[in-house]
Fold these 4 entries.
Entry 1:
Amino acid sequence: MHLNRRALIMSSAAGAAASFTLGRIDIAQAQTSSGASSMAMAGSGEQLPGAYRYRLGDFTVTQITDGMAARPLDAGFVVNAELEDVQGALQEAFLPPDKLFIPFTPLTLRSGDELVLFDTGFGESGPPTAGQLARGMAAAGIDPAAVSCVVISHFHPDHILGLTTKAGEPIYPNAEVMVPEPEYAFWMSDDNKANAPEGRRGNFDMAQKIFGALGERVSQFKWDAEVMPGVTAIDAHGHTPGHTVFAIESGDERLMFLADTTNHPALFVRHPDWAAVFDQDAEAARQTRRRLLDMAAEERMRVAGYHFPFPATGHIAKDGEGYRFVPAQWMPVLDGQA
Ligand SMILES: [Zn+2]
């Protein structure tokens, strides 16, 4: 926010004073890269498209940002910790203590002729700072029509709204949509909807609308099944009843797509017993988080976290009672370096 405001001020002041600030550098770069439209982008606070690619055995993985959403940090966000402690954890991570910026990071996996997208972001229906996946895919040279399969971790809006346009048309016209069987069973049930707390009913309506519109394109998979060669669905329930993570394996390289096993790592990787307001069954989510973070740390697996800071991939290390997220280093795309 601070930088954006500065960039605006600098651009309206015609940049006469050549002061050496980050805002000034942003504008100078925008002007040299692609002219006036980029300059407007810098002024509007929009980030550049974000995509980061790496090899995983025979697979190519591309992490693509869908943007982020900011929410004020109130006492209700972490339901079982003191606000003061939560603010302390953010400060320890050099993040603002009064506001939480939650990133969204789908990824694609290319394997031979298959191009698989894991979770979709918000599409046309999210907050103004999200819905960036299409832009990131374009920057990465990925055509939505080339996506052969979309794999969904769970049915929260930031993971499925981008399956269809507002009008209900599929955004990935040639893709099969694969969803976890227990997640589908939960959200498509009118009985569950009737018994749900008021605040959760909208999520049922949204899921039923989207998967109703997709109809025959949708197929379901079970936990422990291979959704495609090298990709295994793992029970990660708690966040939602059918929340699923994916172990992705090629050669001796392994990646775990953690989906929403944790929300922001500065809070929930550091403090795996803390529960975010989004966890439907907080105790089950806590146990899942401990089990999967432990596995990732023990086995030194690469991880990708949907709500981790972009490019949202790296490793998990044990640290005291909790864990630490160690971001991957930016690398050229080379075999054997995933
Ligand atoms: Zn999420």
Note: The pocket of zinc ion is lined by residues 156, 158-159, 260, 306-307 (CB under 6 Å).
Entry 2:
Amino acid sequence: MRALVVYESMFGNTAAIAQAVADGLSTGAEVTLTHVADAPTDVPPDVDVVVVGGPTHTFTMSREATREEAARRGGDRTPGGIREWLQALPTGGHPQDFVAFDTRVNMPLLPGAASHSATRLARRRGFSVTAPEHFLVYGYHGPLIDGEVDRARQWGQRLSQQLAD
Ligand SMILES: Cc1cc2nc3c(=O)[nH]c(=O)nc-3n(C[C@H](O)[C@H](O)[C@H](O)COP(=O)(O)O)c2cc1C
């Protein structure tokens, strides 16, 4: 099985989770881990699963304005995010499975998550989607709460088993 992991990250937390998910997936798959700025919009046909992760910004995936806000708070400035990448993918059927993850703050009552929006968009693009997962950070900048990197690695490993079936 081949997996493409695409991520976006301003403060490094989603990048750390993406690396851990890729490590977990690599127990059962050949994995390419790519920052969204370098991700191909023509997903190679030999890829079996596309895994996409990004930070939750204003209850959904980032936009130009929220990335600007993150940059003002000291985050990396990136020209596009997973929203723009998914929007640039061709419409119509995709042979790959799709699964999303996000990072978000550790506050139980906050609604919305980047991974839910990404999953909806991927479904509209014709992917066969699997339930998304969330990973938690302290405050706006992180760090990740204890145990999240290990949980991400285990989630990646479970995904590789589940999607190989
Ligand atoms: C502009 C902005 C809006 C945010 N909005 C939300 C939000 O609606 N819900 C939430 O849980 N976290 C929100 N956050 C916190 C981010 O989810 C957090 O910065 C992110 O998980 C860190 O990931 P990163 O280090 O990969 O950028 C927001 C952060 C920024 C910068």
Note: DSSP finds five helices and five strands in the chain.
Entry 3:
Amino acid sequence: MTTDTILLTPGPLTTSARTKQSMLRDWGSWDSEFNQITARLRQGLLRIVHGEGTHECVPLQGSGTFSVEAAIGTLVPPGEKGGHVLVPNNGAYCQRIAKICKVLGRQLSTFDYAEDAQIRPEDIDRLLTNDPSITHVALVHCETSTGILNPLHEIALVVQRHGKGLIIDAMSSFGALEIDARKTPFDAVIAASGKCLEGVPGMGFVLARRAALERCEGNCHSLAMDLYDQWVYMNKTTQWRFTPPTHVVAALDAALTQYFEEGGLAARGGAYARNCRELITGLAGLGLRSFLPTAIQAPIIVTFHAPASPRYEFKAFYNAVKQRGYILYPGKLTTVETFRVGCMGQLGARGMAGAVEAVRDALQDMGIAVREPESSEA
Ligand SMILES: Cc1ncc(COP(=O)(O)O)c(C=O)c1O
């Protein structure tokens, strides 16, 4: 465990001492020991979705967006070959996928929701029925801009019934919320090293259905972003095509070992759910309201309404909480003033209770009235 400032952000997040320690060794990118780590990592990531035998793990250098862009660019054929992506939109990361489609020249349809509304399977059903030219649906599982959870499994079944491909941005849910390839059909799940797996940022990965990936040769507009090429090369040579982020790979390997030792998805998801409940209850006790109803809140990151006080200013609040050892995240909504608190990562010995106390003390320091949590000794 670390004594550093604790990140209450959805990645980068606070990693364990063991994960940090794993980065103290330098690796040669051609070294067979390093390539064994890559192979182990790819297998471990597939295990999380039970995709061994049916899916392929293709890691890619860069932040999560690089892998999202690579997945769209590789799995969706260009316009002249008939690729057409439907992006249901209930937040900023959905909008980013739509922007990627535009930049890459992929035909795009969008369907907009309010930021506090879940994407509905029956809408996807209707949209796919009305436009048979759509070839893929790109869905954000947990929309990190608010923390809303989209009904992935139900949408996946609709997409499968229509014979279309599903590309899932599971950046902030992978490893904590269930995605089971045996039950939930998808062409690709995209995530990254520095999120719920609690590695450090610097690489993403795409878990693609082998039968879908095999058809993707020549789709990609870019050499560096071509997941098909990366996959074929990696299988042939055991190496990454271009310089791998060696320390990031070693850290993710260490993080994944701890993840499985601790009990895998059930344990990680359970810990985040407890953090989330403790956070919402604790801040409610201070008079701070969460933006989403609990029923559609993912246990990953929570958006809170800013206190209704003229003394409130996010930057000052952020600094006051930081002085007490915790890093908050700004809100991402345009219509209401909010801030966000992540439920993920290593929260230190005091857990979420320490964070709630830091928020309380910071608000008191700013002269903003807080409602004291009710004492258990009535
Ligand atoms: C749902 C989702 N998609 C995509 C991304 C983009 O990842 P990155 O900032 O690592 O490029 C994030 C980042 O938090 C995310 O939460």
Note: The pocket of pyridoxal-5'-phosphate is lined by residues 10-11, 63-65, 68, 93, 140, 144, 169, 171-172, 192 (CB under 6 Å).
Entry 4:
Amino acid sequence: MSKTRKQDPAPTGATVPPDPGPAGVSRRRLLGGVGAAGATGLVLGAGGGAAGYAATRSDAPTALTAVGSTEAMFHGKHQPGITTPLQARGHLVAFDLVAGAGRKEAVALMRRWSALVRELMAGRPAGGSADGPGHDTGIALDAGPSSLTVTFGFGRTFFARTGLTSRLPAALDPLPPFSSDQLDAKRSDGDLWVQIGADDALVAFHALRAVQKESAGTVKVRWQMNGFNRTPGATARPMTARNLMGQIDGTGNPKPADEDFDRRIFVPASPGTPQEWLEGGSYAVVRRIRMLLDDWEKLPVDRQEQVIGRRKADGAPLSGGSETTAMDLDKAGPDGRLVIPDNAHARISSPEKNGGAAMLRRPFSYHDGISEDGTPDAGLLFVCWQADPFQGFVPVQRKLDRGDALSPFIRHEASGLFAVPGGAAEGEYVGQRLLES
Ligand code: HEM
């Protein structure tokens, strides 16, 4: 999926060794007029401080670090941004087709978006003439591809608007309501969904602006959410990420090396069915889950660990071992009580307790400032991937809804379900197999 090695292994993606040296960088823009500025940033980083700006300025091109030079592949069996390792920055955006826009306009948009994203993911500027309306904003000049991925999905409402209801898969039925839902309809659902991720904030924002500009006149933004994860290289060794509650989050995820990974995450070939076009695709469930951090942070660490069923420091199950040791759900302590409590989040959500139901959780954290009540508006932009949401997210969330020890500390505030087509082959645009079926 990506051309250079990433440091954060979860979720994993196929990688090949870095392509070091100025030759690799020249593929991008450093040999152009902006090369000096790109190199300057690197020299300053090494030289340590703004005071040295003039003194350390150098016009000699320098290799990008692995963070900047890593490139995810646009073409492939699956779209990028599903098994790609978590990125440091993310934008989730849902769009609705404007009145009067139908299939023809949707085809043209997906063509334009695909052509644009292929360029951006390779670290090249958006097309268009230098001074025309389509010209590049310049926001990502000097930066490498920085693991940029852009992933496209279709919501249930897209099918009626484009006259494609015969292609609407049953798995796009609306998610059932859950008793603890406090959903905001304005920040939920949408005809089209775009997930943008990159290891650099400017590269991610550049892609967001370019995608929005390219869509003008065909769709309008319904909602947008912005998130983040740990920056690659911030930890001394590659490790599973932490969320804003401080927990190691992602341990139990299915791994691409698992024998049944593809079957659980990607839609299989299904000739003659309404989801034939979705082969190699997946379903994304998106939930904005607010964390009630003021309440959570009042809990002593041992109570926090009981809520999850894993140790906070290293993610090991309370039944013992290290992060990767399987949970022993039957183990009792000297007092005869289960060491991983009955209502612990990791117990209730485990595939073992849900008839094998599994999903690939690939979230971003978010922080949108302070709410009117003075508490942080922060939490998880929970994104999970599965071959069928009614075999993955739905049964697990039903169970969590009934008795998860984490429930008093979280609030589901927005929701979306999107069918994400397989990757575009060379010469194809994303969604072509649906839109031209
Ligand atoms: C803010 C909300 C949430 C937080 C903070 C959270 C946190 C965690 C943590 C710390 C773990 C243990 C480590 C790991 O295996 O990743 C975990 C496991 C898991 N969570 Fe969540 N979670 C949240 C919401 C959800 C939701 C909504 C679902 C799905 C409906 C879910 C499904 C799972 C699953 C499937 C596991 C793995 C269980 C296993 O394999 O044993 N989580 N979660």
Note: Confidence is low (pLDDT under 50) at residues 5-56.
